[in-house]
Amino acid sequence: MKTIKQKAIALVAFLALGVTVGCSDDDETQSNSITGIASRNANLTSLVAALEKTGLDETLDGSGPFTVFAPTNAAFDAFLDANGFETLDDVPVATLKEVLLNHVLSGEATSGSLTTGYVKTLAKGSASSTNTLSMFINTSGGVTINGGLSNNGAAVTTADVDASNGVIHIVNGVIGLPTVTNHAIANPNFSILVQALTRSDMPDFAGILGGTASSPFTVFAPTNEAFGSLLTELSLPGLSAIPQATLEETLKYHVVTGANVLSTALTDNMSVGTFSGESFTINLEGGASITDANGRVSQIIATDVQAANGVVHVVNKVLLPTL
Question: 165 and 50, same structural domain?
């Protein structure tokens, strides 16, 4: 028969075990989740407040896995200033939620697994209810997202903060919902296209494709190589040698206004009306391609790069209207 002293010792041991098990069950998993890790980082308090405001703290406390590009407090301060908000409380919840989702990828992507190219975030812009927003990651000299701070993007400053349900990469900016213009600027393979759009004698194409008037846009974007081939074809020494009217109408010929046309909506022999007033024909046999007004054929080499105000498909030859 146990003595009173033995019973007391057993009771103390049981209570101690209960406290230990309680701490393990209550804190261990949650404290190592993305939300839990962020909540312990003094430089991510604005992010945590934003997650709590939108209910995404519970999402990022879930099983995942997720990859989160986490903006610092300074990044949120700059975001609020740039958008005319005094505090996070002034940001509409729906807007804030989409901005936050634009920092989240499905699956775990460590810095070593990231490559230059497009990935899909969990955010949706106003242009499409089904195609989530694209993010352009550039791994040349670090990890830059959507062209960096100057293009409404960000750069990774601390990579690979491991969590039980994914990974966190701390970034120096709040990544805005990208426009068609943002996507063009972010991708170095569109640098000549950007030069063409912003040539001093052109309409404000960058402003148009970065706005909402006449949106959503569907843009068939020629690569740098495509522009190089065009200059050879026209026997011109450089972009500046293309006559003003020719370049303006050619650029308009690559844009469809008022429609976010995804690749799944393209059909064989489909006639597509453009911003220039002329049309071209989609061909699907043997791979998606475009026949322009001059019978020239361009291959569609990438599709469905989603922006908040439209979608981009990549082509390997500049389309030419009737000139």
Answer: yes
